[in-house]
Specification:
This protein has about 425 residues and is α+β, with helices and mostly antiparallel strands. The longest helix is centred in the middle third of the chain and has 13 residues, at about 240-250. It has helices at about 20-30, 50-60, 85-95, 105-110, 130-135, 170-180, 195-205, 240-250, 270-275, 320-330, 350-355, 390-400, 410-415, 420-425, and strands at about 5, 15, 40, 65-70, 70-75, 110-115, 140-145, 150-155, 160-165, 185-190, 210-215, 220-225, 230-235, 255-260, 280-285, 285-290, 305-310, 335-340, 360-365, 365-370, 385, 405-410, 430-435.
């Protein structure tokens, strides 16, 4: 189990460039299975979860060539479907949440898709019903081996259908879209997720020959085609990483420039940080954050009541940033209620912040009230363990702002979502050592 030692209390400065988007990569990489032609993908993040998926594709028989940093070509012209029934696949697929999105493309092109119950972050209940209900509507037969926790769907030929999703699941929508593009006839998906990463997937599929309309809305209409061709695609920058660096700059009173953020795809993220009192300046496609020497003050509602920041399906705020926002609020002027609606365990890292001296009241599994210190009292260094990717980075940000030297164990969780994070932080002045 790896460890970070962080000497906090130092101002940082300089430029940092966000990696390619993890959540987009997990969708896009699965889509290469939809064609036998070559697909080139650029700006792929070099992180554990994405590398695991690339290895899974290779084990499936996909021909993969690395062209340069973050750039690969994929050719799925000789897929080994027997691998899906192997013990090795049952082991490897279980360790990655994103492996669920292999099922849609496999089902669409080969008539069958299997997956062990996926793992991933322990952030609460994350059901798979939306995925499989969509496949069943398209005509697939579902089976589940309870002893091995192994899911499967099979179909001679998928047929288009109308469906109203019971939740606007991003991965569920992506999986159903990838299945529907090769289905016979028209598929209509209402209450579809419309995150920028899902839009990216749809645009890529359309370049490959798919016929998807309504991209960017919650109503997608897909006219099935017989086959898809190759294409080239570039990932968006990771919006969660961008939000992390905004929070880091504020907490350490640092002057930072975040490069090439694809500002128009950030949605409410700049606005929400603005409500916390953080100054952001748009410079071309960069975000400039001045040093907040006098701190930052949370806005109240116009009637004077306490601000609530909550997650919601896009264009609402992504739930992946709420833990960052909670940490940033610990040094604000004012109070805020953080409402994590989508996952019931994501706020359980608050006990580590309490150990560091933060003023946080955990109201229930979904809500926490934060009373800011206004930098009049710094957080204190401590030893802690990273429970998941986002909480781990939130604790890292807290440690970089704290007085003294903190230790974070289980940093493999952080490495699952952030590329060479310690090297990149040292480049802007952070005192962080990996062991």
């Amino acid at each position: 189990m790896g460890t970070f030692k962080i000497e906090g209390g130092h101002q940082l400065s300089g430029e940092i460039t966000p990696q390619g988007a993890k959540n987009e990569a997990l969708q896009i990489l699965c889509a290469v299975l939809l064609t036998s032609e070559k697909v080139t993908i650029n700006n792929i993040p070099d992180i554990i979860d994405v590398n695991k998926l690339i290895t899974l594709l290779e084990d499936l028989g996909v021909k993969i060539q690395k062209k340069g940093k973050g750039s690969y070509t994929f050719k799925a012209d000789d897929v080994n479907l027997d691998y899906l029934q192997s013990d090795q696949f049952k082991e490897d697929g279980r360790g990655l949440r994103g492996s669920i999105m292999l099922v849609g493309p496999l089902l669409a092109r080969f008539g069958k898709g299997y997956i062990p119950k996926p793992g991933g972050d322990k952030i609460g209940r994350r059901r798979l019903d939306t995925h499989f209900e969509g496949f069943i509507k398209l005509g697939a037969k579902f089976r589940y081996n309870r002893e091995e926790y192994f899911y499967g769907v099979e179909a001679d030929k998928l047929k288009g259908a109308y469906m109203l999703l019971d939740e606007a699941s991003v991965t569920g929508t992506a999986n159903i879209v990838m299945a529907a593009v090769l289905a016979e006839g028209q598929t209509t998906i209402y209450n579809a997720a419309c995150e920028p990463y899902l839009q990216q997937l749809c645009k890529m599929l359309n370049r490959m020959g798919a016929k998807i309309s309504g991209v960017g809305s919650n109503l997608l209409v897909i006219d099935g085609v017989e086959k898809l061709g190759g294409t080239e695609h570039r990932m968006l920058p990771d919006m969660i990483e961008i939000g992390s660096w905004i929070g880091l700059a504020a907490m350490t009173k640092s002057e930072l420039t975040i490069k090439d953020v694809s500002w128009d795809d950030l949605g409410q993220i700049p606005t929400v940080f603005g409500k916390l009192g953080i100054t952001l300046e748009r410079k071309g496609d960069d975000i400039y954050i001045p040093a907040h020497k006098d701190g930052y003050e949370i806005q109240n509602y116009i009637d004077g009541s306490i601000l609530t920041i909550a997650d919601a399906p896009w264009p609402g705020l992504t739930p992946d940033l709420l833990s960052i926002i909670l940490v940033v609020a610990t040094q604000s002027r004012g109070e805020v209620l953080i409402h994590q609606k989508m996952f019931e365990s994501r706020l359980f890292f608050v006990d580590k912040l309490l150990d560091m001296g933060a003023k946080v009241i955990l109201c229930d599994p979904h809500r926490a009230t934060v009373i800011g210190h206004d930098f009049k009292s710094t957080l204190k260094a401590t030893t802690m363990t990273s429970p998941d990717i986002r909480a781990g980075v939130s604790l890292l940000i807290a440690a970089l702002s704290a007085k003294g030297t903190s230790t974070i164990h289980n940093i493999e969780q952080i490495d699952r979502g952030y590329e060479n994070i310690d090297e990149r932080l040292r480049a802007i002045g952070a005192k962080i050592v990996r062991s």
